Hints:
Distance between the termini: 41 Å
Oligomer: single chain
Strand order of the largest sheet: 3-4-2-5-6-1-7
Number of domains: 2
Structural class: alpha/beta
Shape: globular
Largest sheet: 7 strands, parallel
CATH superfamily of the largest domain: P-loop containing nucleotide triphosphate hydrolases
CATH architecture of the largest domain: 3-Layer(aba) Sandwich
Amino acid sequence: MSFETLGLSQPLLQALAGKNYDTPTPIQLQAIPSVLEGRDLLGIAQTGTGKTAAFMLPSIDRLVAANRRAAPRACRMLVLAPTRELAGQIADSARAYSEFSRIRVATVFGGTSIGKNKSDVARGVDVLVATPGRLIDLVDQGHLTLREVEILVLDEADQMMDLGFIHALKQIVRMLPAKRQTLFFSATMPKTIQQLAAQFISDPVQVSVAPQSTTAERVDQYVTFVQQAEKQALLTMMLRWGFSEKGNMDRVLIFTRTKHGADRVVKLLAGNGIAANAIHGNKSQPQRERALAAFKDGSVRILIATDIAARGIDVSGVSHVINFELPNVAEQYVHRIGRTARAGAAGVAIAFCADDEKAYLKDIEKLIKQRIAIEPLPANFVAEAHRIKTTRTAPPPPTREERREEEQGRRRFPPARVARGQGRYANRVKPAGGSGGGRRRASGR
Length: 445
């Protein structure tokens, strides 16, 4: 099928043609006709499946067909996103799709000038993409009303729960008109998300494009067992090899559990002559935008991130995802490795697993229902690790704040069980059986 067969208007088809989009993805095929009919929708879809177009294209058509103007300090369509990066990307897509439709799009999120936010919404906007906190600030200060919302979209609802936005979401829903269309998307659908969805949607059409918590089929996954103190040497060796003529690393996204951990990896790599940037919640919005822009244009090919970026980074050409530290919530592993193998490309995900992370690995393998192939340490690892350790610029010891952040994470999210030895794993990825593990609330770092 093509977009023409889905009932979209000519201005939208013209915008899609300009981007060489001609074949809808499965989520678009399922969602667009129902959204055009005005139905509420409950969608289970991971990032990278094309769900932004699945809700934005038919919504723009409905806004145009209604032939109404946004009232001052009001919006007609509200899209809630968990992170600044994701909000910005959704807004960029909305502007591109509405190129020939005369739709006004604005964003409001933390880290930007609230004065500019007030100015952007003063005359009214058709599509407002927002993070919950800044949205509530504008409403409380009387600069925005949600009484005119015709279409509400909750994107990445499970991550909004993880980041602690549940009370903000409940507050927002009380500000909305009862008569509206609601589109609710989540990558996973545990009981807590089902209960949240029930507060927002009525008699929805349900669409799903992948089983819950599945990993990208085109991602080759590996795990290397290594001592915590030796991870930096292993990372340095891997990057040097991968960026050499014999390697195949184009862009590498590296995940740590904490914000200070991300900064430390950047410093350690710099000490070994490897350029990298970090993106996390402690960075200002301009810093985050510069780091992401350098990663996108290839001027800096290594980006260190915390889980706040696991669903907010949509960069084509990420060849490798490295889990420098395994996530203490298994679902985050799925979202992390979903940053590679996008738009039909292949990708590689490598996990570094220390002794105190083996329980996290077991949780991950239980969730994804497969065992991850073991990649042994390089044959010359001991000698090379010693050489790197003795020649690199030594980083400062961990600060009190760094130690506190890591300890808080361990207390809040202990592993489900104590790891008992390394265990034996298959040399190839193969089914392990069993059902997905129970969901634990994520830290939102």
